[in-house]
Amino acid sequence: MTAETETAAKPASPNPSGWRPSAPATGEPVAAPTVTGNRALMLEEPLLFEIGRRDQTGIDLEPAKAVATRLGGLERNGVDLPGLSEPETVRHYTRLSRQNYAIDLGLFPLGSCTMKHNPRLNEKMARLPGFSDIHPLQPQETVQGALEVIDRLAFWLIELTGMQGVAMSPKAGAHGELCGLLCIRAALEARGDPRQVVLVPESAHGTNPATAAFCGYRVENIPATKAGRVDLEALKARLGPDVAAVMITNPNTCGLFEPQMKEISDAVHAAGAFVYCDGANFNAIVGKAKPGDLGVDAMHINLHKTFSTPHGGGGPGSGPVVLSEALAPFAPLPFVQKSDRSYKMVEEETAHEQGSDSFGRMVAFHGQMGMFTRALTYILSHGADGLAQVAGDSVLNANYLLRSLEDVLDAPFAFSGPCMHEAIFSDKGFAEGFSTIDVAKALIDEGFHPMTMYFPLVVHGAMLVEPTETESKANLDQFIAALRSIAERAKAGDPALKAAPIHAPRRRLDETLAARKPVLTYNNPAPDGSSTGLGAHFGGG
Ligand SMILES: *Cc1c(COP(=O)(O)O)cnc(C)c1O
Q1: Measuring CA to CA, which residue among 275, 309, 265 is closest to residue 121?
Q2: What is the CA(99)–ligand 1 centre distance, in A?
Q3: pTM metric for this prediction
Q4: Which of 360, 377, 394 represents a domain boundary (last residue)?
Q5: CA 302 to ligand 1 center in whole angstroms
Q6: How, if at all, do strands 343-346 and 335-338 pair?
Q7: Ligand 1, atom 7: closest residue by C-alpha
Q8: What's the CATH code of the domain at 243?
Q9: Residue 278 near ligand 1, beta carbon < 6 Å
Q10: How far apart are CA 443 and CA 501, in angstroms?
Q11: For residues 245 and 116, what is the distance between their CA atoms, to the nearest angstrom?
Q12: C-alpha 280 – ligand 1 centre gap (Å)
């Protein structure tokens, strides 16, 4: 890949609000392309297929012994993967890693994602050999400490949510939703009540309706009020004998608490249905409110959000599901059972015992051990008071952002009071032709990962900003200053904003084309065969 030719952004014309134009003024030197494509210490890195060679490898392998094949000519003759020497390999991946933005580099304001600092203590604990160097098929008496970690974490998740049981094995939030709905379906089937509809608010995360549809339910929307909450009257009017469950997010995806949650739950239960709560936003209320008190029957907890375990490029998710008394018997296998002196992983159903009503199994083994260890470390190192402060500080930081920006960015729900852990803005008031994407791209130039864009759908051109509790006031002030200046440029219609990002290694990409027609294969562009010559095997794209 070579760097595309860059054109300097046009100098900005109107400058009513005092922002500094980011393009150099006429007469100043314009950055010329470099010979290497590198820019200062930002290094370009081609694909492995472009720099690797088929005859090269970082390790010495003995020539294979001649063996008589028994595959009848069906064996593969080499896989044509390019190789690099060890130092080249180290550089290739180190250069790629430096092109990542990460929470360890700067503020990561992705709303709904809770990109919070992962304390290094978590990593230290997860790397203890007794947790990291074990195997799921090892005899259980040799992994008692690991089983105890799962059991203790299960205890604290139940305690923090005020629920009756927990399924630990789901691997992420969406997987937890599937687990919760399968519990609900099993409970309904057990009472011979095959209901077909799941109600989902308009503002829901896309995984909610997707999960319900995947489970075979028909999905219907519940409208939102002007204040961004579930319309209780509309919900009550729709409840009936065909409704299996309501999937509701609290705090919701507009960053608002649903104050009528208990009334919602009571109405849903009175209609014979169950309440599924999307717990992805639990960070805002952890240690302060218990979903069990609000009438929730099932809720997934994203350990990788609320309990700080790394996610995105940083690690796998983990989505345990807490369950009410009505649903706990249907939880999936396996689960950890504590007896007098030892812990046991119960793998199979036994009649008339715990687990006998289980709907089955969701994963091969027990879930994400590394994430369990990190989450338990986080919970124990914070304690009850520390976790309540996490919630309080996350709400404080989001409200500081909301109130510092509401005069330059339209904040559609700010009239209804404070937000929870994330602040939402719309693109109302931007100059003709300017939208949320222009703000997001300009944030890249300012050195910030963009916020969540165009979600939830109930807000036009939504910008959902979640700073998290671990950002200092100084960090927030810098982010606010950047966003204020960009918002003013969007309102003034600064044409240079349309060219952003101008400082990033890549300019604006055609994201629609990339999503619709992704190029997933490598085609050797060198017709003279001077490159690896692997094109024929990887070609097509
Ligand atoms: C993150 C998120 C999910 C999905 O969780 P994953 O772990 O990414 O599968 C669901 N709902 C909401 C509101 C979320 O923010």
Answers
A1: 309
A2: 25
A3: 0.88
A4: 377
A5: 7
A6: antiparallel
A7: 173
A8: 3.40.640.10
A9: yes
A10: 8
A11: 31
A12: 6
Residue ending a domain, choose from 358, 377, 396: 377
The total of structural domains in the chain comes to 2
For 334, residues 6+ apart whose C-beta sits below 8 A from its C-beta are 169, 345, 346, 347, 361, 365, 366
Max Cα-Cα span within the chain: 84
**Do the domain assignments include residue 177?**
yes
Q: Is 302 in the pocket of ligand 1 (CB under 6 A)?
A: yes
Distance 300 CA to ligand 1 centre (A): 9
Q: Whose CA is nearest to atom 2 of ligand 1?
A: 280
Does residue 361 sit within a domain? yes
- Residue 57 DSSP label: -
Atom of ligand 1 lying closest to residue 174 CA: 9
- Do 358 and 210 lie in one domain? The reply is yes
Per DSSP bridges, beta strands 243-249 and 197-201 are: parallel
- Whether 79 is covered by a domain: the verdict is no
CB distance 112 to ligand 1 below 6 Å: yes
Q: What is the pLDDT along the chain (541 residues), one digit of tens a residue?
A: 333 333 444 334 443 444 554 555 566 677 788 898 888 888 889 988 889 988 888 888 788 788 888 998 898 877 778 899 999 999 999 999 888 898 999 999 999 999 999 999 999 999 999 999 999 999 999 999 999 999 999 999 999 999 999 999 999 999 999 999 999 999 999 999 989 999 999 989 999 999 999 999 999 999 999 999 999 999 999 999 999 999 999 999 999 999 999 999 999 999 999 999 999 999 999 999 999 999 999 999 999 999 999 887 667 899 999 999 999 999 999 999 998 889 999 988 775 566 679 999 999 999 999 999 999 999 999 999 999 999 999 999 999 999 999 999 999 999 999 999 999 999 999 999 999 999 999 999 999 999 999 999 999 999 999 999 999 999 999 999 999 999 999 999 999 999 999 998 889 988 899 999 998 887 766 554 444 434 333 333 2
Q: Whose CA is nearest to atom 5 of ligand 1?
A: 173
Select from 113, 276, 278 the residue to mutate for testing ligand 1; criterion: most ligand atoms less than 8 Å from CB. Answer: 278
Same domain? For 515 and 372 the reply is no
Give the distance (Å) from ligand 1 centre to CA of residue 173. 5
In a domain, 532, yes or no: yes
Residue closest by Cα to atom 8 of ligand 1: 173
Sheet holding 218-222, edge to edge: 165-167, 321-323, 298-300, 274-278, 243-249, 197-201, 218-222
Q: Which domain holds residue 298?
A: 122-377
